[in-house]
Structure to design on (374 residues):
């Protein structure tokens, strides 16, 4: 029994020295534009992969001046020299930074004056404190470590954990938006879009790249509201060159329906999750035929947009039917000019299920399906 106890103590001591001093809190963020994108980042400088399911690791948050904390057990694996992100909200974080966090917890809700601490071997009561941001039992408002509406990043020169918060180890930026939490790593020199028989060809080039993970390509139908995030759709991804001091060229083909004019933008993402949007480019097509397009969003609840194009002016009817052929809504019944048209359909009074919408002109009839999910 004594040998087992001694072995455990030696093992725990080895974990504390080898891993504990080189697994540290590297960033704490409270972005002023999207508070739901708050997060805490942990950096592995141990020289070995760490499996949180083998040894217990906990992240604790002390709110205001409380001496007791809310704790969350870390899970999964953090790679050598890797980063592990615990976020407040999955959707807001992913939308703001372009990648998914490793762990999500509602208690990552530090509003600029809360303390975060990293424990090994147990939680804040049973474990060993290895690293800390802030001071336990102290309200951070007005303190040197306050990060309200901002972000605090561990300086790259810091290579070991510290159980006492030390101002010289951190750089605090206030206020910070989600797009300001990381340096902009890429100098984009050109971005163009052209239509071909195979679709829309996008070409862009960079002069230099630092920490460039890659580019998400986003698209939306021309003339929609460009600051509405829900209307921008990710249509592809192109891997970046990481670090480069020489010009690089990129290309991507979007095999879209040529009849629809579109806007495009690039979302450049670095390896730490920071991102920046490019300018918007557009491709415009003269519409040579009448066409009905898939509604967006689809599935929807309770509203969606139905789009169609008209080759010439004339009488138009757009109606919605249930699966047994009963008309449940008439959206358009009038003369309309040629071009692209968008019609909003609100199905708040209808039940979930499949519906059929029909475009009818004197020389054209087409139906398509859509799904209402409540």
């Amino acid at each position: 029994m004594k040998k087992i106890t001694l072995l455990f103590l030696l093992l725990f001591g080895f974990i504390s020295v080898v891993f504990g001093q080189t697994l540290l809190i590297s960033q704490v963020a409270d972005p002023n534009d999207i508070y739901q994108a708050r997060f805490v980042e942990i950096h592995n400088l141990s020289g070995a992969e760490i499996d949180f399911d083998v040894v217990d690791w906990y992240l604790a948050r002390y709110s205001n001046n409380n001496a007791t904390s809310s704790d969350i057990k870390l899970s999964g694996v953090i790679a050598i020299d890797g980063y592990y992100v615990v976020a407040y909200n999955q959707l807001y974080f992913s939308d703001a930074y372009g990648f998914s966090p490793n762990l999500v917890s509602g208690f990552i809700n530090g509003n600029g004056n809360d303390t975060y601490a990293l424990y090994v071997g147990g939680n804040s009561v049973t474990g060993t404190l290895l690293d800390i941001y802030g001071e336990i039992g102290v309200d951070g408002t007005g303190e040197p470590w306050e990060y309200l509406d901002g972000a605090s990043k561990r300086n790259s020169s810091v290579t070991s954990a510290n159980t006492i918060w030390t101002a010289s180890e951190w750089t605090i930026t206030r206020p910070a938006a989600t797009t300001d939490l990381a340096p902009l790593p890429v100098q984009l020199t050109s971005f163009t879009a052209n239509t071909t028989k195979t679709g829309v060809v996008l070409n862009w080039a960079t002069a230099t790249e630092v920490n460039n993970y890659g580019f998400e390509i986003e698209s939306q139908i021309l003339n929609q509201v460009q600051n509405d995030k829900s209307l921008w759709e990710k249509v592809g991804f192109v891997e970046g060159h990481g670090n480069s001091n020489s010009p690089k060229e990129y290309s991507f083909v979007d095999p879209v329906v040529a009849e629809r004019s579109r806007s495009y933008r690039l979302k450049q993402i670095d390896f730490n999750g920071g991102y920046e949007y490019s300018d918007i480019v557009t491709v415009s097509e003269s519409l040579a035929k009448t066409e009905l397009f898939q509604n967006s969003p689809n599935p929807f609840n309770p509203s969606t947009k139905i789009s169609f194009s008209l080759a010439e002016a004339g009488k138009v009817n757009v109606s919605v039917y249930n699966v047994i052929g009963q008309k449940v809504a008439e959206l358009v019944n009038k003369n309309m000019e040629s071009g692209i048209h968008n019609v909003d359909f609100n199905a708040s009074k209808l039940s979930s299920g499949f519906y059929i919408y029909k475009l009818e002109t004197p020389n054209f009839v087409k139906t398509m399906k859509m799904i209402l999910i409540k």
Residues 2-18 form the longest helix (17 residues). The first strand starts at residue 23 and ends at 29.
